[in-house]
Structure formats: structure tokens, C-alpha cells
Amino acid sequence: MARAGLTSERVTRAAAELADAVGFENITVSALARSFGVRDASLYSHVRNLQDLRERIALLAAGELADRIAAAVAGRSGKEAMVAFADAYREYALAHPGRYAATQVRLDPAVLARSPAHARNVELTYAMLRAYRLVEPDLTDAGRLLRSTFHGYVTLEAGGGFGHSREVRASWERGLDALHLLLENWPADPSGRQAGASPPGGILEA
Question: For residue 156, what are the domain limits?
């Protein structure tokens, strides 16, 4: 690629593509500079350092994932929305492994505070779970359950961790059936805690 026309957005998107190709943990400023055919110093007017570059990938990926989920759940509610939400999450994670890994990195609160993508993620999660008549703290508990289930499944699937002959998609669909039944019949909190008004964590935050 030519040096001319480099922008922070181009650099971030190229880094995200490189992350998908080589793994998020293998991203370096030097590797990215080589992909553009420039010296490392040429990128430092667009990104401060490696941490800044990785944060930019994480924010980009969070926005892309939120867009995918929003489009999938539009006009749906209840089980239909939950399944669409889950499928969009899984498809993004499998199609963009480097970007997806970036969404799992814990970001500095100051970075999160200026990320509309993460706030939107919380709103999407809240809207989907609200149809199950959940209130806090059950909203956060349910959000954490979904995140850990979705993340665990796609991580194992991407790594070839399912060796049984049972078709992976079929098990995914049956798992979503089970999650729907659980959300429909969410158990009462045995501690007797009162419902609160704080918003739940999103699928990337809980």
C-alpha cells in the first residue's frame, strides 16, 4: 500500500484485518507498518502506541458487533430476538476471530466512557432481556450467563474443540432452546435481595 492517504481510520481497519489474519495477540505496530509498506514511525502520527492501536481495534469491533446484533433483532422479541442476537454474535465471532478477541479485552473505564458502541451494546442486551420480564439484579445475572455461554461455545467451536459427530449447529440451536426456557422460568433470588434500578451489563460488559 502507498504511504499517501494514511488516516487513523484506515490504520485501525487495516489493523483489524491483520488481527483476523494473524490473531489479535500477534498485532504489532511493526507488522502493521509492513502491511502498508512504510516505516513504524509513519504510523505514530495516527496511533500513539500499541495499546492505543489495540484499543482502537476493540472499539471498532464492538461497533461492528453491535450493528450486526441490532440488525438481527430489529422487529423481534422474546425467543426470536434472543436467537437472532445469539446467531449474530456467533457468526461475527467465527467470521472475525481477531476482531472478536479484541472485544473480550478489558478496556480502561476512560476509553469505555467515550465508546458509544459499548453503551449501545448494553442497550441491546437490556432490550432483548426485558421481554423476559427480568429486573435487576437478575438482568445482570442473565447477561453474564448469556455472555459466558456464547463466548465459551464460539471459542471451543473456533478452536475445533467439539470432536463428537453431532453437528455443531444443531447443538447450538438446542442450547438456545434451553436458554430460552431458563430465561422464561428464571428462578427467584434465594437471598431475597430487592430489585434495583441499575442497568444490566451488556454482552461485552457483564
Answer: 59-184
